[in-house]
Amino acid sequence: MSTSQHDSQGGYRYLFGPVPSRRLGRSQGVDLVPVKTCTFNCPFCEVGLTTVHTTERREYVPVDDVLAEFDAWLAAGGEADIITVAGSGEPTLHSRFGDILVGIKDRCDIPTALLTNSSLMHLPEVRAGAAHASIVKVSLSAWDQASFERVNHAHPSLSFESMIEGLRALRGVYSARIWMEVFLMAGVNDDPSDVAKIAELAKGVRPDRVQLNTVVRPPADGLAGAVTPEALQKLAGLFEPRAELIAGFHGEPCRGAVAAETESVNMLARRPCTAADVAASFGLSEAESGALLKSLYESGRVVTEAREDGIYYLAKS
After folding, report:
1. Are 173 and 231 in contact (CB under 8 A)?
2. Cβ distance 140 to 198 under 8 Å?
């Protein structure tokens, strides 16, 4: 393989997974920006705090190299339920993310999803790029400029009202599926009166599905707390259509995936996972997943973080 397709350790530079997605099943990720290059600095982000807080759109990674790596993955028998343009930052910051979606569509029949925080949807060129995805998963977790800044720590140049107008415009030109994630934190944006304001704005966007999420994996800010399942159930009824709860993964294992150490570390660098997540991603038994993670931990390549729902593994910074 050329160096454009693989990093020095033999793993992919821009592809990661397949990983178990609570929304999409077995998701093969495509990462288009350097780690934590984002328009937001959300305290609940599982990837960590933003290191490059920006709205600058450019070709952060070469399109040809990303597609060459995708070709290599397909040639190696890569399988997934969906190809997800997401990863370690905001993918729409990449000025040619739409070309990558087109390139993937030209190469295989696997559907694609764009996971975006919605911040740049006010730009017509971003909406045009998003139109090439099978699913656009947008985010809306605030209801005005002040809450936008508090909940998402948005870049100071961003306008909440412009973002909302961009989402409405996306619905006006986009005929495929729009899913909306609403991320709630206890004591921050989970008051029913505030969630009702989010629901009213969501109604104007007319998403095909609304999904409520809360803190499950280790967040960037340890103060970001989870909303209880009981509270989420009550809040779900405020949305049209009624919101789904997506906390917790119950997908099937990715059969036949090879759990190479480098691939596992690449995945854990982008999202904390439990041993069960790693097992599901690579089609391993519980014992095999445990042995792999034990080896990575003892070699110093991953660290652990204990949470109420279990032990999570993260790649060491």
Report:
1. no
2. yes
Q: Which of the listed CATH numbers 3.40.50.620, 3.20.20.70, 3.40.50.1000, 2.60.40.1170 matches domain 15-251?
A: 3.20.20.70
pLDDT single digits (tens) 63-112:
999 999 999 999 999 999 999 998 789 999 999 999 999 999 999 999 99
Its sign, for the CA torsion 155, 272, 190, 127, is positive
State phi, psi for 208 to the nearest 5 degrees. -75, -30
C-alpha 137, offset from chain centre = 9
Contacts of 242 (CB under 8 A, 6+ apart): 210, 236
Q: Which residues contact 146 (CB under 8 A, 6 or more apart)?
A: none
Query: Exposure string (b/e) for 114-132, b if CB count within 10 Å is 16 or more?
Result: bbbbbbbbbbeebbebbbb
Q: How far apart are CA 56 and CA 144, in angstroms?
A: 23
**Do residues 289 and 278 touch, judged by C-beta distance below 8 A?**
yes
Q: What is the pTM of this model?
A: 0.77
* Domain residue limits, the chain: 15-251
Contacts of 180 (CB under 8 A, 6+ apart): 137, 138, 139, 140, 202, 205, 207, 209, 210, 211
